[in-house]
Fold this protein.
Amino acid sequence: MQTREIIQDTHREPAVEGVLIEFKDVYKSYGDNKVLNGINFSINKGENLVILGKSGSGKSVTVKCLVGLTKVDSGEIIVFGKDITKLNEDGLNSVRMKIGFLFQSAALYDSMTVRQNLVFTLQHHNKKLTEAQMESYVMDALKNVGLLESIDKFPAELSGGMKKRIGLARALIIQPEIMIYDEPTGGLDTITAREIIDLISEIKIKYKTTSIIITHDLTCAKYNSDRIIVLKDGVVKTEGRFRDIENNTDEWVRSFFEK
């Protein structure tokens, strides 16, 4: 896969088509450890929201609450017009079916080939697909990440960047409305990270996804964000476009940009 130039539009207007996700006064503690302390933010349909925050700021717990893997102590999380904190497991599953997740580790099944990894995901989401339909979905997903030639390889035969792209293909194969990226460029060399950054931008355009991107990578944040929120101690410390965050005069916020 050839390295492409990163899309340079860093001052685009956020897509405003209505709020798709909203956190309202969400609290979550683990014993005496208060992780989320009344967090409030929303994401518009078609928007890429980057979440920045240092370790322990509540980034991962926020995402776990969003997909119902962690129950909140109080507050509301509205997704597709439903408060998921009040849904039963069947209701949560219907929401999860519309969400793709790129894990930091790619989380591929080592005993399965690339094709089998993708087919397994398809079968879990839609048991009515024929073998021909599944093969078509698999081929398209792999073409979209530039790894069709790896279809019969096992994860052990892939580089870290290739695994990340296969993980992305697996997330996209269900044609999600929401994408969650957990440290999408983490552990990658500079060139491969640039490829992933490009892919995220292309995916937004092609699939019209609404995305949450958790990252420490300021390059990823700069080129993939419509808007950024910065978490501190379980609340939103500040939010805005990349240039707003970069020019923030608060000493703690400035620390993200210090080498």
About this structure: The chain has a mean pLDDT of 88. The CA atoms of residues 35 and 56 lie 7 Å apart. The beta strands are 19-30, 33-44, 48-53, 74-79, 82-83, 99-102, 178-182, 210-214, 227-232, 235-240. Residues 190-207 form the longest helix (18 residues).
